[in-house]
Design brief:
Aminopeptidase, 9 helices, four-stranded antiparallel β-sheet, binds zinc ion, alpha/beta, six-stranded mixed β-sheet, Alpha-Beta Plaits
């Protein structure tokens, strides 16, 4: 039996354990917000890693306001020195999940096993990824393969809310940093036959329009801020959106409609209604909206902002009596790993070995922790690869196929072998 087959046979043998581990993780409802049960989940992963022979350390996000007594932000990192020369490969997964939302036909935190699938919030995004990364290394070790260099596994918090107490914190503490960490694999769900090399940028901003209050029966005496905001949103739809649709990135973003820059209104509040939503008979003198502009590497962040604000400025020149305030909430530049990186090549080759066809290199429409690895950690070689399917993330009846889990574990194990062979 060849080496490859020996490792893949071992993957089949560890699969049951990986499935059980994934289900245990799904049963801990690490819902973010608010960041529930993080410590219990981190400890579950830490004790598993310790049992498998890793040295384990816990990294609470001390000094950050979101690390509170009620909702501690606890990260866990396991390290395994092989005693043989080789690179440091760091696997990372986030342990938080988004709230379950509505529309489920199965309980979201019971990890039901049905028709070869594990159902639950976080099954795909991304507790299956955490189980896969742990058991990929196990498959190699149990197959008697001489693993090389240093292997690290971390499970981190708050990816769904920006990752500042999670991967960013590990980078700031020097746990993930260039010079120490050679390669980072984030096991996010981007489909198990694809290798993700980066993501688009984000610009979140808030616009507050201020008009003039008046009695609701005499609207001519006021300036209605909600109507002004309506005009602004309409112009974005009519003028900006077609322009964005006309731009296309060379980054292989999936799904296809996200290969352009996009704009979304994430939320809006306005008018003089009290908290119980009892409107008062007044012309709305204030309206506030949050916008989510996703941009491509071919665009500049400053230009992205200017072209939206220009539209609002034009509107102010035409409509009298309103003012506005502009607030940047978040700017994340796009990131991309060179497709010629040894890490990309090693995993793309492994996909071919397991699936029998070449891996698609893709990029994510939204950001994930890659940005911190690159910008704060300075690590150049970072990919996302995991068992989950992208379109199931954050959906009701989220699930992971056990067959996808099996193949992804195989890809990760062979990916490591390919990577070591290139060193
Ligand atoms: Zn995720």
């Amino acid at each position: 039996m060849g080496l490859e087959d020996r490792v893949l046979a071992e993957v089949d043998r560890v699969l049951g354990e990986a499935v059980d581990f994934c289900r245990e993780l799904v049963r801990v409802p690490t819902v973010n917000p608010p960041g529930a049960e993080y410590a219990r989940c981190a400890e579950l992963i830490g004790s598993r890693l310790a049992r498998l022979g890793y040295e384990v350390c816990y990294v609470p996000a001390e000094g950050l306001p979101e690390h509170s007594a009620d909702y501690p932000r606890l990260n866990v990192v396991g390290g395994l020195d092989s005693g043989r020369p080789g690179p440091t490969v760091h696997f990372n997964g986030h342990l938080d999940v988004v709230p379950p939302g509505t529309g489920w036909t199965r309980p979201p935190f019971e990890a039901a096993l049905e028709d070869g699938r594990i159902y639950g919030r976080g099954a795909a995004d991304m507790k299956a990824g955490i189980a896969a990364m742990v058991y990929a290394v196990e498959a190699l070790r149990r197959a008697g393969y001489p693993v090389r260099g240093r292997l690290e596994q971390s499970a981190t918090v708050d990816e769904e809310s920006g990752g500042f107490a999670g991967v960013a914190y590990l980078c700031r503490r020097g746990i993930i940093r260039s010079g120490r960490t050679d390669y980072v694999v984030i096991t996010e769900p981007l489909d198990p036959d694809r290798v993700c090399i980066g993501h688009r940028g984000v610009y979140w901003f808030e616009v507050t329009v201020r008009g003039r209050v008046a009695h609701g029966s005499m609207p001519h005496l006021g300036v209605n801020a909600i109507e002004v905001m309506g005009l602004f949103i309409e112009r974005l739809r009519r003028e900006l959106k077609p322009r964005l649709a006309g731009r296309r990135t060379n980054l292989p973003v999936v799904p296809e409609p996200a290969r352009h820059p996009t704009l979304n209104v994430n939320g809006i509040v306005g008018g003089q209604a009290d908290t119980a939503w009892r409107p008062t008979p007044c012309v709305a003198d204030e309206c506030r909206a949050v916008f989510d502009r996703r941009f491509i590497p071919e665009e500049q962040a400053a230009e992205v902002r200017r072209e939206v604000e220009d539209i609002l400025r034009e509107l102010r020149a035409e409509v009298a009596g309103f003012d506005y305030e502009w607030r940047d909430l978040m700017v994340v530049e796009p990131v991309v790993t060179d497709p010629g990186s040894p890490l990309v090549r090693a995993f793309a080759r492994a996909v071919g070995q397991v699936y029998g066809y070449p891996a698609a290199l893709v990029a994510s429409p939204g950001t994930y922790d890659h940005k911190h690895v690159r910008r704060l950690g300075g690590v150049e070689h970072c990919i996302a690869y995991g068992p989950g399917r992208l379109q199931l993330a954050h959906q009701p009846d989220e699930h992971v196929e056990i067959e996808d889990l099996r193949r992804a574990i195989g890809v990760m194990a062979l990916g490591l072998i390919n990577l070591w062979a290139q060193e």
